[in-house]
Model the fold of this input.
Amino acid sequence: MSIRGHAAIWTLTFAALAAIPQSAIPSTAPSAIRNPQSAISTAAWRTLFDGTSLNAWRGYKADTVPEGWKIVDRTLSKDGHVGDLISRDEFGDFELELDWKIGEAGNSGIFYRGVEDADFRGKPTDDRIYTTGPEYQLLDDIKAEDNKTRLTCAGANYGLYPSPEGHLKPVGEWNKARIVANGAHVEHWLNDFKVVEYELWSPDWEAKVAATKFNAWPKFGRARRGHLGLQGDHSGTLAFRNIRIRDIR
Done:
């Protein structure tokens, strides 16, 4: 075929493609919500702990950091029972990433969209962020007391949605947590594996909440924007590093 013939074919091909609506062309891009390496948002990452300062954090219903939290070798660490930390700022739709390391038989959690409930009427010892904020469970799945069910093992949405086993690193090693909250849709990732996915306020979620202790707390999981929380009230060692967040737009 002559060069002129090739040119004619290419001209017809491009003209045909241009006539196809863009909505009719299937996308080959990976889903940002399902791919941990993809960019969910064009928003810049914001560092919440850089290894040198706790300025982004304070205690629940307090303006200072609870005693017992400290910076050790550029990690945010505690050893023993301490008060919970919450972020000074609130977040709505976001992607959160951090590294965590827990001691033998350790138990902790990451809360999100929690609020400081001025109307709390339960037991004073329950006036904590876990009465309003869903939890990403942190656990030594081998020796911690909460290891009896996958509903309370590492990566689970505590008490509501279980995580599968097989993705947690041994005690003393760093694990990577990632939480995606986008409207009602929530994902928990553990070491680059999606281990939990659920829809807030769905019939399934409502039924699960109604069947658990969370039913006693009317504001649990209802906020569309709130604080992050790091649980400190269990014994043992715990450390965090590389805490960062970005908005989903």
User: Anything to note?
Assistant: The radius of gyration is 22 Å. Confidence is low (pLDDT under 50) at residues 1-34. The helical segments are 3-19, 203-210.
